[in-house]
Design brief:
six-stranded mixed sheet, globular, mainly beta, 2 helices, about 110 residues, Jelly Rolls
Length: about 110
């Protein structure tokens, strides 16, 4: 079994389509899961990603400083409408934050 699947074996998975492609997203719905995110992943399996779920609208920033893989980060509102998205490089210390609050974040 791939190390990534072992790391997230106890996570719920949600399926969604993004630009016509189906993704399986590990659900990060606790502070501990959101803090870990995809930072320990060395290679993201094709068609997989993570969705961060918050209980209310937030305006937290994200960073790639501990993340080893490039990611697209998509910020969504409470209706799953796109607020903003960013293409991010591994280990970047740049703060990633959309202009408006969001409730969900997808990393693929």
């Amino acid at each position: 079994m791939n190390d990534t699947f072992k790391l997230f074996k106890n996570y719920k998975i949600e399926k969604t389509k993004i630009k016509g492609r189906t993704y399986k997203l590990w659900v990060a719905n606790t502070p501990q899961k959101r803090k870990l995110g995809l930072s320990k992943v060395r290679q993201l399996p094709q068609g997989y990603g993570m969705i961060f779920c918050f209980n209310e609208l937030v305006d937290n920033s994200f960073t790639m400083k501990n993340t080893k893989i490039p990611l697209t980060i998509i910020f969504l509102d409470e209706s799953f409408g796109i607020v903003d998205y960013f293409s991010c490089r591994p280990f970047s210390k740049k703060s990633i934050r959309p202009q408006k609050p969001y409730k969900y974040v997808i990393e693929i």
